[in-house]
Amino acid sequence: MTRAATRAGLGVLLLGGAVLTGCGGSNPGEESGDGGVVVPSTQTRYSLAGGCFALRSNDRDAFIAKRDGNYVADATAVDEAEPFYFRASALGDYLLYDHEAEFLGISDPLGELLDGAGNFVGTVGEILAGVGDTLGVIDPLRRIGGVLRTIGADVVGGIGDTVGGVEVNPALGARRNASDLAIWTVQRPEGGRFTLANGVSGQRLAATDDTGALVLAEEAVLGEAGTFDLVATEGCAEFPEVTTNAHGEPFSGTNADGSLKGIADTHIHIGAYEFIGGRVNYGEPFHKFGVTTALDNCAVNHGPQGTTGLIEHFTSGSPLPLRLHDTQGWPTFRDWPHHSSLQHHQTYYKWIERMWMGGLRFMVNHMTGNETLCQIYPLVRNDCDPMENARLQIKRMHELQDYIDAQEGGPGRGFFRIVESPAEAREVIADGKLAVMLGLEFSHLFNCKSYLGQPTCSREEIDRQLDEFIELGIRAIFPIHRFDNAFGGAYNGTGITETVISVGNVLATGQPFALEACGPEEEEQTDQPGPNLFESLLLTVSFYLDALPGLTDLNAILNPVGGQPQCNARGMTDMGTYLIDRLIDRNILIEVDHMGTRVRDKALQILEARGYPGVVSSHGFLTSSRAEQRLVDLGGMVNDFASTAGNWADRINGIAEYENPDYFFATGFSSDINGIATQPGPRGNAADAPLQYPFSSYYGDVEFERQISGERVFDLNSDGVAHYGLYPDLIADMQQNGGENGREAVDILFRSAEAYIQMWERAEAYER
Question: Which is it for strands 669-670 and 640-641: parallel, antiparallel or unpaired?
Answer without folding.
Answer: parallel
